[in-house]
Amino acid sequence: MTGSTASLRRRRRKAQRVTLNEVAELAGVSPSTVSLYIRKPDAVSEDRAHRVSEAIAKLGYVPNLMAGGLAAASSRIVSVIVPSIRNAFFAETVSTIQAALGSEGFQVLLGHTEYSEAQEEALVRAALSWAPAAIVLTGLSHSHGTRALLAASDVPVVEMWELGGPTIDMAVGFSHEEAGAAAARHLIARGRKNIAYVGARLHEDHRAARRADGFLRELAPESGQAGRIIRHPGPATADAGALLLNRALQQFPGLQGLACSNDLVALGVLFECQRRGIRIPEDLAVIGFGDLGFSASCNPPLTTIRPSGDVIGLEVARLVLASVKGKPEAPEPVIDTSFLLVERRST
Cα 320 to the chain's mean position, in Å? Predict the structure, then answer.
């Protein structure tokens, strides 16, 4: 330990928290340089950045993000709330948001609701106690309490992953009804006349339920087939897909096409078809949603609908930064990222 480091440590024995001024003194720079380095490391010269980094490491300095935020009545924290941290759909979006906001000196406070509106409300209440720079929610369906909390605050709000209804403030996503309709149109265009939709957790996963609604609305005018949807109350897993396929075959003899609420459910359908000797796509065409990592490499490769999770993340970050910084060139408050139907051998 150097003499100056030891001196600084002795000076703060009673106040254990290392201060920004102590870091600046050890690094031989101004406190404003340390502050700039913490917010935007690339804006500091390489030599000064190295000295500040070493000083932070030696002193074990942890920035007090709230301290800087109190003067402006907000912190540099952005609360991002998703339905599930286990869901691969949202992982890409959150990772992109974190990278984009982190480069501007913001920190992401991540919470997950397990598809519970009551839990979302509790997370929003907790996030507001930190005076966040912004709050990012998933979807457009929220409890009255959540809406009241946000209405009473002046915090920018971005709802992501869904469009097609009233928004609280700003929104980034796409129409899930149209995604479901696109799946139905694809199966119909392939000559499949006896088709159905299977989904898991539709009573809680509002976006999957809206895809089912869009599927059925597109299906009924074409063939008069109504109510051809089968639900599983549990999570969307491959096991759920196998159960749903068996029920679909029982309820709809001669089934020719199946749309699944996501790719995991579709994977279970593919496995069960192989077990039962059902040929895909000759006997049954299958389409999923999500374009997860395995979708292009399973047997057969899965036709699916690809949402632009990374684009959603980038646009969310852009809206947040524009709102926080008050940029005159702020983007439109509602951004449609659309989706892509990726055709593979399963249809």
Answer: 15
Give the model confidence (pLDDT) of 310-327 as tens digits: 999 999 999 999 998 776
- Name the residue ranges covered by the structural domains of the chain: 3-63, 74-174+310-338, 176-307
Buried b (16+ CB within 10 A) or exposed e, 129-140: eebbbbbbbbbb
Fold of 3-63: 434 Repressor (Amino-terminal Domain) (1.10.260)
Quick one: fold of 74-174+310-338? Rossmann fold (3.40.50)
Torsion sign, CA atoms 272, 274, 278, 283: positive
With cut-offs at 50, 70 and 90, classify the pLDDT of residue 138. Answer: very high
In 140-236, DSSP assigns E strands to 157-160, 170-173, 195-200, 229-232
Q: Cα angle vertex 91, ends 297, 186, to 5°?
A: 50
In this structure, are residues 169 and 333 in contact, taking their beta carbons and an 8 Å threshold? yes
Q: How far apart are alpha carbons 150 and 205 in whole angstroms? A: 22
Beta bridge partners of 173: 336
